[in-house]
Automatic annotation (TrEMBL), chain A:
Main location: cytoplasm
GO cellular component: cytoplasm
Name used for this protein in its record: Phosphoribosylformylglycinamidine synthase subunit PurS
SUPFAM superfamilies with a match to the protein in the record: PurS-like
Domain of life: Bacteria
UniProt pathway annotation: Purine metabolism; IMP biosynthesis via de novo pathway; 5-amino-1-(5-phospho-D-ribosyl)imidazole from N(2)-formyl-N(1)-(5-phospho-D-ribosyl)glycinamide: step 1/2
UniProt xrefs under InterPro entries: PurS, PurS-like_sf
EC number(s) on file: 6.3.5.3
HAMAP family in UniProt: PurS
NCBIfam families assigned to the protein according to its UniProt record, in alphabetical order: phosphoribosylformylglycinamidine synthase subunit PurS, PRK05974.1
Sorted UniProt keywords: ATP-binding, Cytoplasm, Ligase, Nucleotide-binding, Purine biosynthesis
Function: Part of the phosphoribosylformylglycinamidine synthase complex involved in the purines biosynthetic pathway. Catalyzes the ATP-dependent conversion of formylglycinamide ribonucleotide (FGAR) and glutamine to yield formylglycinamidine ribonucleotide (FGAM) and glutamate. The FGAM synthase complex is composed of three subunits. PurQ produces an ammonia molecule by converting glutamine to glutamate. PurL transfers the ammonia molecule to FGAR to form FGAM in an ATP-dependent manner.
Organism listed in the record: Vineibacter terrae
UniProtKB/TrEMBL annotation, chain B:
Places the protein is found: Cytoplasm
EC annotation from Swiss-Prot or TrEMBL: 6.3.5.3, 3.5.1.2
Pfam families: GATase_5
Coiled-coil features, chain-numbered ranges: none
Source lineage: Bacteria, Pseudomonadati, Pseudomonadota, Alphaproteobacteria, Hyphomicrobiales
Active site: C86 (nucleophile), H202, E204
Protein name: Phosphoribosylformylglycinamidine synthase subunit PurQ
Function: Part of the phosphoribosylformylglycinamidine synthase complex involved in the purines biosynthetic pathway. Catalyzes the ATP-dependent conversion of formylglycinamide ribonucleotide (FGAR) and glutamine to yield formylglycinamidine ribonucleotide (FGAM) and glutamate. The FGAM synthase complex is composed of three subunits. PurQ produces an ammonia molecule by converting glutamine to glutamate. PurL transfers the ammonia molecule to FGAR to form FGAM in an ATP-dependent manner.
Pathway annotation: Purine metabolism; IMP biosynthesis via de novo pathway; 5-amino-1-(5-phospho-D-ribosyl)imidazole from N(2)-formyl-N(1)-(5-phospho-D-ribosyl)glycinamide: step 1/2
Provenance organism: Vineibacter terrae
GO molecular function, one term: phosphoribosylformylglycinamidine synthase activity
Gene Ontology terms: cellular component: cytoplasm
This protein's encoding gene: purQ
Keywords, ordered alphabetically: ATP-binding, Cytoplasm, Glutamine amidotransferase, Hydrolase, Ligase, Nucleotide-binding, Purine biosynthesis
Length: 80, 228
């Protein structure tokens, strides 16, 4: 089973990297770009066939390591 | 004072801080490689600066979950003092030894310069050789030193006097002199028992006149005096 984890900054947490990306896009001729928030995308192979079990294990992985829940949210997606 | 300095792959300030400790305490610290299972019985544990594990995932995230840090956390919970500087602060924040988190500098650039710090509290193992309100000058060198904590945590920190140092200008104005965007100019925090200090600036690099200043030395003198 494959899983995808998206880690993003919580609303209200300043994202200077997102801001810099937005500024760079403006300079490149994309004035329509407004607020930009960036994050992390992590793809994992899991030796697991049960979706519920996989999700609960992934949740634990996110809380323990993949995200810092003081400033970050995470979203888990199971693929195949 | 017996002490241990932790060394992870990518740690680079361990000899600086070991030298500062030795000059104040007169005893060389144990240098403990992260893979060593045994942490010696010591009066002070130091998590030094650098780029542990190449800052992969988030600064300090990998080191925070290493077996040796579990042991550090267990000792800290029993009251063994921990000094966590720069990358050490990032590791300590990741593992929850001190509240908050260190984010990318607001201006996105690595900052390497001397900064002014206001000593917020002299009531601790680490700061009793300073006067509360005193302005000291020590270097910073980091890209992720932008301290952040949520409003509830900040209120708790302020109410309990857990803010150790704030960035300021030379007159002690803590609304100026912020090198990285840290919320409320916070440069260093204590845990709730004030036995763990996490700070971004490098007091170890201001302990000899030859380094350009000695304002960091009282911190090590304070530890050496308190932990005999």
């Amino acid at each position: 089973m494959k899983a995808r984890v998206h880690v993003t900054l919580k609303t209200g947490v300043l994202d200077p990297q997102g801001k810099a990306i937005g500024n760079a896009l403006h300079r490149l001729g994309f004035p329509e770009v407004g607020d930009v928030r960036q994050g992390k995308f992590i793809e994992l192979e899991l030796a697991e066939t049960d979706a519920d079990r996989a999700k609960s294990r992934l949740d634990e992985m996110c809380r323990k390591l993949l995200a810092n829940t003081v400033i970050e949210n995470y979203r888990i997606e199971l693929v195949s | 004072m017996k002490s241990a300095v932790l060394v992870f792959p990518g740690t680079n300030r361990e000899t600086d801080i070991a030298g500062a400790i030795e000059r104040s305490a007169g005893i060389k610290p144990h240098m403990v490689w992260h893979g060593d299972s045994d942490l010696p019985k010591v009066d002070l544990i130091v998590v030094a600066g650098g780029f542990s594990y190449g800052d992969y995932l988030r600064c300090g995230a990998m080191a925070a979950h290493s077996p040796i840090m579990r042991e550090v956390k267990a000792r800290a919970e029993k009251g063994v003092p921990v000094l966590a500087v720069c990358n050490g602060f990032q590791i300590a924040a990741e593992i929850g030894l001190v509240p908050g988190v260190l984010m990318r500098n607001a201006h996105l650039q690595f900052v390497c310069s001397d900064v002014n710090l206001k000593v917020e509290s002299s009531q601790s193992l680490f700061t009793h050789r300073y006067q509360a309100g005193q302005v000291i000058r020590v270097p910073v060198a980091h890209a992720e030193g932008n301290y952040f904590a949520d409003d509830d945590t900040l209120k708790r920190l302020e109410d309990r006097g857990q803010v150790a140092f704030r960035y300021c200008d030379s007159t002690g104005d803590v609304t100026a002199g912020n090198p990285n965007g840290s919320i409320r100019n916070i440069a260093g925090v204590f845990n709730d028992t004030k036995t763990v200090l996490g700070m971004m600036p490098h007091p170890e690099n201001a302990t000899e006149a030859l380094f350009g200043g000695t304002d960091g030395k009282p911190l090590f003198d304070a530890l050496a005096a308190a932990l005999v």
